[in-house]
Amino acid sequence: MIKASVYVTIKQSVLDPQGVAVQGALHSMGFREVESLRIGKYMELQLDTNDRFEAEARVKAMCEKLLANTVVEDYRFELEG
Amino acid sequence: MIKASVYVTIKQSVLDPQGVAVQGALHSMGFREVESLRIGKYMELQLDTNDRFEAEARVKAMCEKLLANTVVEDYRFELEG
């Protein structure tokens, strides 16, 4: 069993309206030290395999095909176990 | 300038319908090794402070008050810089 942690973030050049909104909310609550805030997705997958090399290729394929929109998003992942 | 990475995940005892849907989509695409998948949020904050101790308390307060719904979500964060 391998655990994969996938991080999907909006590319730096792309506007993140959700992040801007949350930053505005934090400012109005008094957290004025927040200079920027960007929101992404974090996914934890349990994979029924023990082949780390294969798992790496498979998770990469999942990210490219479904988990991330590579036009506007970046992704990275870590494998454990 | 301190960078905070905040991870907000749905508690293990709480159903994650978005994760179930994505897992179903992966299965139907042939990624049958995915045993479970849970989706959370990942936030990157740039904080205009150099006081790590203060930053830790402030980010904790942001999570408790806005970034996480502690009834159904867990959070953790890391500070860098």
From TrEMBL, chains A, B:
Part of the phosphoribosylformylglycinamidine synthase complex involved in the purines biosynthetic pathway. Catalyzes the ATP-dependent conversion of formylglycinamide ribonucleotide (FGAR) and glutamine to yield formylglycinamidine ribonucleotide (FGAM) and glutamate. The FGAM synthase complex is composed of three subunits. PurQ produces an ammonia molecule by converting glutamine to glutamate. PurL transfers the ammonia molecule to FGAR to form FGAM in an ATP-dependent manner. Its main location: cytoplasm. It comes from the Bacteria. Its EC number is 6.3.5.3. Belongs to the PurS family. The keyword ATP-binding applies. Part of the FGAM synthase complex composed of 1 PurL, 1 PurQ and 2 PurS subunits. It is found in: Cytoplasm. It catalyses: N(2)-formyl-N(1)-(5-phospho-beta-D-ribosyl)glycinamide + L-glutamine + ATP + H2O = 2-formamido-N(1)-(5-O-phospho-beta-D-ribosyl)acetamidine + L-glutamate + ADP + phosphate + H(+). GO terms for molecular function: phosphoribosylformylglycinamidine synthase activity. It comes from Paenibacillus puldeungensis. Pathway: Purine metabolism; IMP biosynthesis via de novo pathway; 5-amino-1-(5-phospho-D-ribosyl)imidazole from N(2)-formyl-N(1)-(5-phospho-D-ribosyl)glycinamide: step 1/2. InterPro entries: PurS, PurS-like_sf. NCBIfam families: phosphoribosylformylglycinamidine synthase subunit PurS (TIGR00302), PRK05974.1 (NF004630). The keyword Ligase applies. Gene3D superfamilies: Phosphoribosylformylglycinamidine synthase subunit PurS. This is Phosphoribosylformylglycinamidine synthase subunit PurS. Keywords: ATP-binding, Cytoplasm, Ligase, Nucleotide-binding, Purine biosynthesis.
